[in-house]
Amino acid sequence: MSGSAPPPPSGDEARWRADARPGGGARPGRGWRRAGWVAVVVLVLVGVVVLATRPWAVDATPVPTATVVAATPSATDDASPDAPTPGPTSTAVSPPGADARFDATTAASLLVTRADLEQAVPAAAAGVGRGLEPGTSTWGLPEGAVVEPPECLPAVTVVTSPPVHHDAQSWGNDEMTFEQDVVVLPDAAAASDAFRALVTTVDACARYTRVVPGAAGTTWTAEPALEGQGVFPAIVQDVTAVTEGVAVPQVTGHLLVGNAVVTWTASAPTAADAQAAHAVLGSSAELSAVVESRALAAVRALT
């Protein structure tokens, strides 16, 4: 090793050596000044960012809101098939001939004809003959006869006191008979009252008997009456008539026409029961329709 002195360290080497000194290295001063500038720069940048974003400010941009518009019903909406449509106002209509006035001259027009029966009643199709002629009978019970119980009298005579006029007839053959009575009252109001009383009697009298001194009596056993479905006030019922032990199925009806009450009875003497009787006579509705059709023609003939 030579004895010459080593060259002095360069500037960088001197700074490295100073930093490597035990106990902390570099001198304070220059290094801290650099760190301070860095901190200042960072703080400035943060401040710029905060001022730019302004997180404390409320967003002034309006929030869009939905506008609800109430729908106005249109004529099309009102005409929806599900919406009820108000119907026409109904008014009570009187049946045809409610004020019709029959008398001794016109009452016979309410009696059915041979052609009426032959066209509508199965057992009459082969022809029917006259039994009782119109104008040959009197109203009421045979002399000395009574009805038991007495309150059932209208079921046999229609009214309890002599009417203004009465007429009757019958048609028949071996399989059927058709009897008909007409009672004429003073006016339509009187006939309506009589018909109402008759209906009440028929409803109350399920079994009644006509007792005739010196002759065979007849007992009727009736089914509940049904209201007619035609244009006139009417009732109809199945009845079984027993005379001297012989039972005959019948269909009986009553019809109110103006100031007249029309009563009819269709019988099937050879039928064993009501079902067999209807097979030869037709249904209750069909028999009622025959009488009603003739009554409607009679009303029209009055005008």
Account of the protein in words:
By secondary structure, the protein is of the alpha+beta class. It is built from 8 helices and 10 strands. The protein has helices spanning 11-19, 30-53, 75-78, 114-120, 154-157, 188-204, 274-281, 284-302, and strands at residues 129-130, 146-148, 165-172, 177-184, 207-211, 218-222, 226-227, 234-243, 246-257, 260-267. Strands 1, 2, 3, 4, 5, 6, 7, 8, 9 and 10 form a 10-stranded antiparallel β-sheet that branches. Residues 1-7, 9-33, 48-53 and 55-81 have low confidence and may be disordered.
Topology, element by element:
Elements: H1 11-19, H2 30-53, H3 75-78, H4 114-120, E1 129-130, E2 146-148, H5 154-157, E3 165-172, E4 177-184, H6 188-204, E5 207-211, E6 218-222, E7 226-227, E8 234-243, E9 246-257, E10 260-267, H7 274-281, H8 284-302
Antiparallel strand pairs: 1-3, 2-5, 3-4, 4-10, 5-6, 6-8, 7-8, 8-9, 9-10
Distance between termini? 168 Å
Q: Biggest sheet, in brief?
A: 10 strands, antiparallel
Shape: globular
Structural class: alpha+beta
**SSE topology string:** HHHHEEHEEHEEEEEEHH
List the quaternary state of the chains: single chain
Note the total helix count: 8
**How big a fraction of the residues is strand?**
15-25%
User: Average pLDDT, to the nearest integer?
Assistant: 81
Any idea what the radius of gyration is?
Answer: 57 Å
Can you give the helix content as a percent range? 25-40%
Beta strand count = 10
Low-confidence spans: 1-7, 9-33, 48-53, 55-81
